[in-house]
C-alpha cells in the first residue's frame, strides 16, 4: 500500500471509530474474573479497530474498600464502590459484568437488567437450576442482551471444531468424552467461598463440570439424560470434589463427563474428544492453540494431525497475531466481549456462538441431574423449562 493510501485508510478508520458510541461498563468483582474481564475490555481496541462499541470503564465494585480502590486505579475504572447497588443505579453504566461469587449472580444480574442494563454473568449462572431459571426469566423479561460467561466457546480451536462439525467433516457424532481436571482442591485455605455451599451452590460440578456441559451442548447438542456419581473425598468438606457421569444426547450420541479438583498434577486440564462416523477431534485446554483432527478418508496420511489454529482463515484470526503467533487463555475473554458488544450494537445475536442465560440455565439443569442421579442411583431424564 502506498503511503498516501495508507494515510487515507487510517483516516477513514479513525473517523469510523470516532462515530462508534461508547458503552459504560460496571464490573462486579475485582479479583480473578474482575481482572480477566477488565483486561479484555482494555485490550478490545488492540484486537479490533474500530470495536463494535468503545468500552468505557465506569465503576468497579468489591467488598474491601482499599483493594477495590486499588483495582479501580490499576484496571482504569473512573469510580469504585463497596456496594454493587451503586452500579445498578449508575445511569452512566449500560453493561454490568458480573464476576462475583455464585451467590451474587442472581440479585445484581436481575436488578441490572431491570434497570435496563445489558448483562454478562459468569458461570455457573446460578447455584441451582431453579436459581438459574429465575435469573434467565428475570433478565429475559427486561429485554436486554444477556450472555453467560462460558468463555471456552471463544477458544479458536473450539470454534474451529464447531465449524468442522457443522460442515459435516466428522460425520455423525457417536461419542463425546471429556474431563476437566484441576488439583488445587487439596488445599481449601484459599478460595474460601468456593467451599461454602451457601456461596458456591456446588463444588467441582458448578465450577468445572458446568464448562464441560456447555461445550458438550455447544459441539454435540442437547443432553437428554445422565447417570452420575458425585463424591466429596475431603473430610468435613461441604461441597463435592468430583463427578463422573455418562450422558446421552438427543441426537443419540453418548458420552462421558468428568470433573475434579483433586487430580494431582493436573492444573487446568480440560480435555475432550469427539468421535464421528467420518473422523475425530480432540482438544486439551493446556495446549489451547491446537486442535487434533483425524479424517477417516485421509487414506495416505492416516493418523491424528495437530492443527495449529492460527491460520488467516481460522476463527478469530482477524483479532490475533500473524500465523503461528499463538494466543492465550486471557484472549478468550477479549473475543467473548467483542462478540457480546457486537450483539449489543445489533450486528449479530448472542446465540448460537455465545452462551445466553438460557444456555446457562440449561447447563444448570444437567448439573442438578448429576446430583439427583448420584443420590437416587438411577439414570435421570432431563426436562428443560421454557419461559
Ligand atoms: N469463565 C471462567 O473461566 C471462570 C473462571 C473463574 C471463575 N469464574 C466464575 O467467576 C465468578 C467469580 O469467581 P472468581 O474466581 O473471580 O472469584 P474471586 O474470589 O477471585 O473474586 C470474587 C470477587 O467478588 C467480590 N465480592 C464478593 N462478595 C461481594 C459483595 N457482596 N459485593 C461486591 N463484591 C463482592 C470480591 O470482592 C471479589 O472481587 C464465579 O462465579 C466463578 O464461577 C469463571
Describe it for me?
- This protein has helices at residues 3-19, 32-47, 65-75, 85-89, 106-114, 129-141, 156-166, 197-200, 204-219, 331-344, 357-376; strands at 22-28, 54-61, 79-81, 95-98, 118-121, 146-148, 173-181, 223-231, 242-249, 254-260, 269-276, 279-284, 290-295, 305-308, 380-381.
- It has 387 residues and is of the alpha/beta class.
- It folds into two domains: 3-151, Rossmann fold (3-Layer(aba) Sandwich); 153-381, Dihydrodipicolinate Reductase, domain 2.
- The strands form two sheets. Strands 14-13-12-11-7-10-9-8-15 form a nine-stranded mixed sheet. It has a six-stranded parallel sheet with strand order 3-2-1-4-5-6, sandwiched between helices.
- The mean pLDDT is 95.
Helices, strands, pairings?
Layout (H helix, E strand, L loop, with lengths): L2 H17 L2 E7 L3 H16 L6 E8 L3 H11 L3 E3 L3 H5 L5 E4 L7 H9 L3 E4 L7 H13 L4 E3 L7 H11 L6 E9 L15 H4 L3 H16 L3 E9 L10 E8 L4 E7 L8 E8 L2 E6 L5 E6 L9 E4 L22 H14 L12 H20 L3 E2 L6
Helix pairs in contact: 2-10, 5-6, 6-11, 9-11
The structure holds nicotinamide-adenine-dinucleotide.
The site of nicotinamide-adenine-dinucleotide has 22 residues, from helix 2.
Task: Write down the CATH class of the largest domain.
Answer: Alpha Beta
Would you identify the regions where 5 or more consecutive residues have pLDDT less than 50?
none
Mean pLDDT over all positions:
95
Helix content: 25-40%
Question: How many domains?
Answer: 2
Largest sheet: 9 strands, mixed
Question: Which homologous superfamily in CATH is the superfamily of the largest domain?
Answer: Dihydrodipicolinate Reductase, domain 2
Distance between the termini: 53 Å
Query: How many helices?
Result: 11
Bound molecules: nicotinamide-adenine-dinucleotide
CATH architecture of the largest domain: 2-Layer Sandwich
Q: Determine the structural class based on helices, strands and strand pairing.
A: alpha/beta
Shape annotation: globular
Q: What share of residues are in beta strands?
A: 15-25%
Amino acid at each position: 500500500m502506498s503511503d498516501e493510501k495508507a494515510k487515507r485508510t487510517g483516516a477513514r478508520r479513525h473517523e469510523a471509530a470516532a462515530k462508534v458510541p461508547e458503552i459504560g461498563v460496571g464490573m462486579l468483582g475485582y479479583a480473578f474474573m474482575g481482572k480477566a474481564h477488565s483486561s479484555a475490555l482494555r485490550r478490545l481496541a488492540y484486537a479490533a479497530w474500530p470495536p463494535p462499541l468503545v468500552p468505557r470503564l465506569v465503576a468497579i465494585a468489591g467488598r474491601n474498600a482499599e483493594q477495590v480502590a486499588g483495582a479501580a486505579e490499576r484496571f482504569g475504572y473512573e469510580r469504585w464502590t463497596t456496594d454493587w447497588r451503586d452500579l445498578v443505579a449508575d445511569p452512566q453504566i449500560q453493561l454490568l459484568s458480573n464476576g462475583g461469587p455464585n451467590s451474587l449472580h442472581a440479585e445484581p444480574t436481575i436488578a441490572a437488567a431491570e434497570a435496563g442494563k445489558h448483562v454478562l454473568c459468569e458461570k455457573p449462572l446460578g447455584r441451582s437450576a431453579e436459581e438459574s431459571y429465575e435469573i434467565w426469566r428475570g433478565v429475559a423479561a427486561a429485554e436486554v442482551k444477556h450472555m453467560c460467561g462460558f468463555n471456552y466457546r471463544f477458544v479458536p480451536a473450539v470454534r474451529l471444531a464447531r465449524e468442522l462439525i457443522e460442515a459435516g467433516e466428522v460425520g455423525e457424532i457417536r461419542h463425546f468424552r471429556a474431563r476437566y481436571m484441576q488439583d488445587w482442591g487439596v488445599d481449601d485455605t484459599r478460595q474460601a467461598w468456593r467451599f461454602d455451599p451457601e456461596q458456591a451452590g456446588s463444588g467441582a460440578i458448578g465450577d468445572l463440570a458446568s464448562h464441560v456441559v456447555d461445550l458438550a451442548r455447544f459441539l454435540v447438542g442437547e443432553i437428554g439424560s445422565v447417570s452420575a456419581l458425585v463424591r466429596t473425598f475431603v473430610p468435613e468438606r461441604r461441597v463435592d470434589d468430583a463427578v463422573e457421569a455418562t450422558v446421552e444426547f438427543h441426537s443419540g450420541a453418548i458420552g462421558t463427563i468428568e470433573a475434579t479438583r483433586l487430580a494431582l498434577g493436573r492444573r487446568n486440564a480440560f480435555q475432550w474428544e469427539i468421535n464421528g462416523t467420518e473422523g475425530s477431534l480432540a482438544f486439551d485446554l493446556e495446549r489451547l492453540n491446537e486442535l487434533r483432527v483425524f479424517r477417516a478418508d485421509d487414506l495416505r496420511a492416516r493418523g491424528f494431525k495437530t492443527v495449529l489454529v492460527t491460520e488467516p482463515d481460522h476463527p478469530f484470526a482477524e483479532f490475533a497475531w500473524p500465523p503461528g503467533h499463538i494466543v492465550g487463555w486471557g484472549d478468550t475473554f477479549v473475543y467473548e466481549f467483542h462478540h457480546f458488544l457486537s450483539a449489543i450494537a445489533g450486528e449479530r445475536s448472542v446465540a448460537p456462538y455465545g452462551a445466553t442465560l438460557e444456555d446457562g440455565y440449561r447447563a444448570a439443569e444437567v448439573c442438578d441431574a448429576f446430583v439427583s442421579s448420584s443420590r437416587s442411583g438411577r439414570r435421570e431424564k432431563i426436562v428443560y423449562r421454557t419461559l
